[in-house]
Structure formats: structure tokens, C-alpha cells
Amino acid sequence: MINKNTPLKEVLKLAHPCKCDACSNGCNYGSGFLAGDDAKKLAKFLGVSEEKLREKYLEEAEQFNKKLLRPKLERKHGKPYGKCMFYDKKEGCRVHEAKPMQCKLAMGCKNYGEELMLWFMHNHIVDENDEKSMKEFGVYLKSGGKALKDA
To answer: pTM, whole model, 2 decimals?
Structure first.
């Protein structure tokens, strides 16, 4: 159903706004990476400049040799993971209307949820022109990770 070349417009149609437990479970263990104009939308929603957004609300993380921004995590006991700073167990996502694209695509309650995450990975993280990115992606695949097919 979804492949690497599926247009963003079509992908977003599959990612309806959802606040169920399956879709918000990941918020307890991490946060989604920003892509496109996510920083601009999030800054506007919070009423801060993009510079202030980066300073106060975002942290840098690396995946497949690419540095990306994501909402800061509230880590406990030195763990590498933690709850997204914008997630509240009672309220849910406090920035739901402006949350990062990867968060929007996190559809744990749908049978195609994993494909949406793979689409994001292929289109916003893995860099086919970067040897180290491809090598790290290869390790991911060898360890049981999945990849989407081209159209």
C-alpha cells in the first residue's frame, strides 16, 4: 500500500489525528523527529521564535548518520530514553495541532502504522548518497529492520 515514493499528501491522509493509547505509547519513551516546516509550525503554536524553540524545547539526536531535532525528553535515572516533554498522561500531546511529522505518522492503532514510520525513515532520515548512512541502515536491516519498496 505505502512505498518509498508515496507522496506526502497521500501519507498524511492515512495519518488521521489519533490520541488512543496505541498511538501515544511511544510518547512515554521518546519523541518524533522534526521534518520540513515542523519547527516553524511548532514555534508559532508555542508563541516563540524558532531560535527560542531550539534552545528551550528541542534536542539534537542522530539516526543513520543524520543529525535531527526532536522535542526534549524527560529522562530518569540516566536512561537514554524518556517521556516527550510535550506529553501528559491525562491531557495527551500538548502540541497535538503542531506536533512533528514523525509524531503525526505514529499510527500504532492501524495495521499500516509501521509502514508510515518506514516511509518517514526513507524520506527524511536515510540518505542514499551518504555511505555511512547506508551502512548504518544496512546494520538496521540485518538486525531485523524492514524497508519499503520503491513504487
So the answer is: 0.90
What's the CA gap between 88 and 41, in Å, rounded? 20
pLDDT tens per residue, range 127-150: 999 999 999 999 999 999 988 887
- Cβ neighbours of 42 (radius 10 Å): 23
Cα distances from 98 to residues 34, 46, 115, 134, in angstroms, run 11, 9, 22, 31
Residues 148 and 123: beta-carbon distance below 8 Å: no
pLDDT of 78 > 80? The answer is yes
Q: Three-state SS across 70-101?
A: EECEEECCCCCCEEECCEECCCEECCHHHCCH
Q: First vs last Cα of the chain: how many Å apart? A: 10
Contact predicate 54/69, CB 8 Å: yes
